[in-house]
């Protein structure tokens, strides 16, 4: 395999270099390429393990070698040891490239006070024979000035005469000028993708130099957590609720009267006020009570609010982060205006948003084509999620959401509708849903359907009586059961008015599955309903089943779960290699539990002889090549299993949660299998993103029925 190295060269300070690196990682990862990263030289001594290194490690799952400090590099050059320095750079690249398809080398940001830094980038790129991608940002320049700036940077690397100079990525398009503070009142500076494409950046291109990415400014990507504000100001925490998850999108410095500041009480606002402004405190409490997701309340001047007033508003502020600082409001505002806006590795949600934003605007396919690698496709977590969205968009299915008034469900439905993942139908009162949307700061798109249960319930009474007549269900009983929106949504699915159902954010698994079993029933070839989780491990996506439904399946049922899970894996682009998990591998152990797994394995082979399946296998023998070599050397599955079938719910659920939490692995599911029509359950702690991907899964399942 021919190795490739891309060298990412910033044209100056402040181009968002590491954010671009993260975006390239995600863009290539989505295309199934395994990426290794190296930052050979860091600006300062402490930067040898600095923020960029941590972010690169988080994004790629591979920790880069320890960087050489800029001072150390300068010292080596001064002492005539430039060749030795480049040998060390080569060594780092060789170390990283051993198990990857492509290596990305992050250059060093040039500084006018240290002109040799630009030459260092040129020398590193030349030494590594790397293909060079410039990273720049317009800042306050117009198109002509930016073109001139870019031509100077191109000239350093040999210009159009250098075949390794591929092109550039232009970041922070339409960003505010350099005096902008990320925490001033307004963050909303919008630019559409079409506006970006219509700008005259195409004039920068030549036959051999391409625009590889145009990244519009998105102010939400610099929104810190309230926890970050607290850490930066060394604030006292009066109420920690929501501290780690709230995002500060704007700041309201409340020196004005309530009528003049109430318009600032918007989603994501951090209210900054002296502790003795009871009027501001009351207004903030009312906004919070009305469901406006403020990001926090920051009390200045070391003044504690009046105890009686605090007791009055305490219930309304119970879920709002409250901080206190000793500095006055003016000093606090000054400190906040100088707060660094760089993302940190301990903020994975923000890192994920940045990676997705950057990747969406980078031409990853051009880079992959440039690689001309003959490699086996790897279904990485990013590639799997990308594939899910693509398949769901192609399916264009109608998905009913019975928990239509629930905030996370509303947000997920809006995103799915806007991205074309599914045609979502919310069951709930329209005025409540609209009020929730306003409080959340989201706009309900035109295509999003809202159905009020009270207006449609009667039309499902007679059909439900017909479906359940063998159970002697009467019309009044059906009407009472249809008060439950999950039952109502399930009847819509039973009558083919929708293609799938997603529920569980505020209902139990039983509440979701029971109506489906009663009204939809199992698929003709299924003995039971089971579940799988898609486990997004750093190296690949794996399927775990059954971790949510069947407490103690028989051997016959376990075989059915294995076949269902293999079928589901294949449907989602995973070529199944199924391991039947036990505490024993092969013939090394005995006992009823092992025999059940062994029998299930034989039954599954009988039913589907061409399926690559083996068992019983211990977890390590199934997943780790070195263990498999000694424990099951002749197995076609051991060491490379991607579908793991657990013998019972106790084992499956415990394993999935242990892997998820201890390895910080994202899991998607549970996805239900074996029903005649797709119904999927959510965890009650599901995040908006979890709901989005479950809707996507359901839409894809609907194409397979």
Please provide a written account of the structure:
Helices cover 42% and strands 16% of the residues. 46% of the residues are buried. Helix 4 (82-97) crosses helix 5 (116-128), helix 15 (381-395) packs across helix 28 and helix 16 packs across helix 28. It has 28 helices and 24 strands. The strands form five sheets. Strands 2-5-1-6-7-8 form a six-stranded parallel sheet, with helices on both faces. The protein has a six-stranded mixed sheet with strand order 21-20-22-19-18-23, with helices on both faces. A five-stranded mixed sheet has the order 9-13-12-11-10, sandwiched between helices. With 705 residues, the protein is α/β, with parallel strands linked by helices.
Break the fold down into its secondary structure elements and pairings:
Blueprint: E1 4-10, H1 17-30, E2 35-38, E3 41-42, H2 51-60, E4 68-69, H3 70-78, H4 82-97, E5 102-106, H5 116-128, E6 131-136, H6 143-156, E7 165-173, H7 193-198, E8 210-216, H8 226-233, E9 236-239, E10 250-253, H9 258-261, E11 269-274, H10 278-289, E12 296-300, H11 307-313, E13 322-324, H12 329-337, H13 348-360, H14 364-371, H15 381-395, E14 398-401, H16 407-419, E15 423-427, H17 430-440, E16 449-451, H18 453-456, H19 461-467, H20 475-481, H21 485-494, E17 500-503, H22 509-519, E18 530-536, E19 541-545, H23 555-571, E20 578-581, H24 592-607, E21 613-617, H25 619-623, H26 625-631, E22 643-645, H27 649-662, E23 666-673, E24 679-681, H28 688-702
Parallel strand pairs: 1-5, 1-6, 2-5, 3-4, 6-7, 7-8, 10-11, 11-12, 12-13, 14-15, 14-17, 15-16, 17-24, 19-22, 20-21, 20-22
Antiparallel strand pairs: 9-13, 18-19, 18-23
Helix pairs in contact: 1-2, 1-13, 4-5, 15-28, 16-28, 19-20, 21-22, 23-24
